[in-house]
Amino acid sequence: MKKIMFVAVLSMALGFTSCGSDDDGGSNSGCTTCSFDGETAELCEGENGTIIDEDGEDTGLSLEDFKALIALAGGSCN
């Protein structure tokens, strides 16, 4: 059940991708690693405060909101 919740939350975050991205491929200083039931994912914050997915697309979901969802589901973020 926990893995299903982690996958669902991660899918929601990545599902809110926008059509364009102005990510310039800068450093990963705005990234954090979240883990849930043995699964981990690296999440990076874009210039506007939302998560940038692994394809460089802006998801529209704030990093702080995603961290709260992970914590609510029993996971953690560094």
Topology summary:
Blueprint lengths: L1 H14 L15 E6 L2 E7 L4 E3 L5 E5 H10 L3 E2 L1
Antiparallel strand pairs: 1-2, 1-5, 2-3, 3-4
Overview of the molecule:
The chain is of the alpha+beta class and 78 residues long. It has one domain (2-16, 30-77). It is built from 2 helices and 5 strands. A 5-stranded antiparallel sheet has the order 4-3-2-1-5, covered by helices on one side. The chain is globular. The chain starts with a helix and ends with a strand. The model has no long low-confidence stretch (mean pLDDT 76).
Helix and strand composition category: alpha+beta
Tell me the distance between the termini: 23 Å
Shape: globular
Q: Helix coverage percent of residues?
A: 25-40%
Total of DSSP H or I helical runs spanning 4+ residues: 2
Number of domains: 1
Major sheet size, sense and barrel closure: 5 strands, antiparallel
User: Looking across the biggest beta sheet, what order are the strands in?
Assistant: 4-3-2-1-5
The total count of strands amounts to: 5
Mean pLDDT: 76
> SSE order in H/E notation?
HEEEEHE
Radius of gyration: 12 Å
Summarize the model shown.
Helices cover 31% and strands 29% of the residues. With 78 residues, the chain is of the alpha+beta class. The protein has one domain.
